[in-house]
Amino acid sequence: MLKIGNTEIKGYPVLLAPMEDITDPSFRYLCKMYGADLMYTEFISSDGLIRNGKKSVQKLDIYEYERPIGIQIYGHILESMVEAARMAEQANPELIDINFGCPVKKIANRGAGAGMLNNIPLMVKITEAIVKSTSLPVTVKTRLGWDENSKNIVDIAERLQDVGISAITIHGRTRSQLYTGKADWTLIGAVKSNPRMKIPVIGNGDVDSPEKAREMFNRYGVDAIMIGRATIGRPWIFKEVKTFLDSGEKLPEPSVSDKVALAKLHLSKSLEFKGNRRGIFEMRRHFVHYFKGLDNFRDTRIRLLTTEDPADILEILEYIETRYA
Asked: Would the pTM of this model clear 0.90, i.e. be above it?
């Protein structure tokens, strides 16, 4: 069971990782539909939020059917992070998550996200200040360390626990690895088995199948797993994983017709939340993944990635169903 504040999730909790330009309300709608136990917003810039930047403020929008849900913030200035946490609290999520794990250069190089792994005292100081500033549970998502020579996550986890976080999510790579190589779950397991650790430990990295999910629960004893990139174009992975963990049953891959119906639903939600232009633009990355692996799909994929009229996109989707079903 996973317990964070007043949120309790029984069994084998499977969480949706926060991903920029991916885990927007339309995608979260689908992931919840397939059984995601806990979801997070896209990460929100603390600087953008306190300046009332339109895109940052929009990311605070959460919906009752999404619960439980966390709002994730990032930044490197203590005062901005505290103010952003207070603003996030007003949106009434179940928890506030601090992103100390994003490896993207423009974020990490200015000391935010995974860049904070180069300044652990400041990481701890910011975390403590946020914990004290809100009545909500505060959690942290981070990585093993900055590089191969500084995998200090066991110490980091202790120090963050000591200043009051309610759970920690660990991505099994260093910042220097970005998303390359293999996630190292042995250090995630070391944090979980550390007798000093009393808070839930959530493992993240390379979970892309029901079998892998079961292995991570059984081998490393984590309280929950978090799935990120493997959900893109495959939100049904939550149902696959949870069914397998609960009963050992392997669900079949959805049919092309099922995927077309899902893509249509996703598109309608994207248009509903973001309007035609932005909604269509941000759906393109999902379309590519929904129909990955279909034979002789290049021309159809190009049409999906260039068409700007919703009615025309629906026609293309219907063609895909007729052609490949």
From this structure: yes
Q: Rounded to whole angstroms, how far apart are CA atoms 12 and 210?
A: 12
CATH 3.20.20.70 fits 2-247, yes or no: yes
Residue 293 neighbours by CB under 8 Å, 6+ apart = none
Q: Which residues does 263 contact at the CB level (< 8 Å), separation at least 6?
A: 286, 287, 290, 291, 317
Q: In whole angstroms, how far apart are CA 287 and each of 185, 280, 302, 316?
A: 31, 10, 11, 11
Cβ-contact 320, 295 below 8 angstroms: no
**How large is the average pLDDT for residues 238-264?**
96
Compute CA distances 4 → 140, 141, 152, 212, 216, whole Å: 12, 14, 24, 24, 20
Residue 29 is predicted with a pLDDT of: 97
Architecture of domain 256-324: Orthogonal Bundle (1.10)
- How many other CB atoms are found less than 10 A from the CB of residue 247? 8
What is the set of active-site residues?
Answer: 102
Q: How far apart are CA 259 and CA 290, in angstroms?
A: 7
Contacts of 225 (CB under 8 A, 6+ apart): 12, 13, 14, 15, 202, 203, 204, 207, 213, 216, 217
What's the confidence (pLDDT) of residue 325? 78
Q: Does the pLDDT value for residue 21 go beyond 90? A: no
CA-closest candidate to residue 282, choices 295, 291, 269:
269
Determine the residue type at 88.
A
pLDDT of residue 1: 85
Residue type, 70: G
Q: What is the largest CA-CA distance in the chain?
A: 58
pLDDT in tens, 210-233: 999 999 999 999 999 999 999 999
pLDDT digit string, tens, across residues 169-194: 999 999 999 899 899 999 999 999 99
